[in-house]
Amino acid sequence: xxxxxxxxxxxxxxxxxxxxxxxxxxxxxxxxxxxxxxxxxxxxxxxxxxxxxxxxxxxxxxxxxxxxxxxxxxxxxxxxxxxxxxxxxxxxxxxxxxxxxxxxxxxxxxxxxxxxxxxxxxxxxxxxxxxxxxxxxxxxxxxxxxxxxxxxxxxxxxxxxxxxxxxxxxxxxxxxxxxxxxx
Length: 183
Known about the structure:
By secondary structure, the protein is of the alpha/beta class. Helices cover 28% and strands 16% of the residues. It has helices at residues 27-38, 58-68, 84-98, 109-118, 134-137; strands at residues 14-15, 49-51, 73-80, 123-129, 155-161, 171-172. It has a 6-stranded mixed sheet with strand order 1-3-4-5-2-6, with helices on both faces. The longest helix is centred in the middle third of the chain and has 15 residues, at 84-98.
């Protein structure tokens, strides 16, 4: 498996696909996505599911959003959500990057990463790419809530998934109910 080049952001755990070379006509969608992930009084973390027909640009929008907000978060990671085995392996890679394997059970990198994210001093952004539905990523989504005193820090998640939602469907999501976006 060939990994895309890692964006160079000094000291930050970052694993994202390359920035899309052209993303025409998506500024409104990117602004809506940012509003859903960062505004309002809904509890953290927030989930937004991007959905639409294959090839519509869901992954490109999610990756572009992540690249634009690298300065706002301390961690940005993209997971291949279509395959649980690959997603688990990617959580293992992130756990190693964070030094998290020693925190909990080294055999459970998902719980180790969740423990680090719960105490993470800055915001974070996870992209679950090509998730076929909520059930495919449910166990991988960090639990709700922020550590006390950290409510001002944005903790974000975005899922991009395939699937036909009908003509004109661009994005749907319900901020504030982690793991229960309006898929």
